[in-house]
Amino acid sequence: MANTGFLRFKTGVIGYTLPTALTQRFKIQTLRIYVSGQNIFTVSKLKFMDPETGYSQREEAYPVQKAFIAGLNVNF
What we know:
Helix content is 5%, strand content 47%. The chain has one helix and three strands; from the N terminus they run E-H-E-E. It has one helix spanning 20-23; strands spanning 6-17, 30-44, 67-75.
C-alpha cells in the first residue's frame, strides 16, 4: 500500500502597508503592496499522481495550475 499523505500550500497572501509618514508626502492616505498565490507547492511521495484528485499525470487530467498575483491598493 502506498503512502498517500501529502501537504499542499493552497492559498496565501502577504502584504505590507507603508507608514503614513511616507505616503502623506505624495498626498496618499494608504498604500498597500501585496502578493497572492494559489497552489503554491505540494509535498508528496507520489510521483505521477495528484494526491487531492487521484488522477494520474499519465491519464487525461489537467495538472494543478499555479497562479501568482501582485498588486497595489492606493487610497487618495
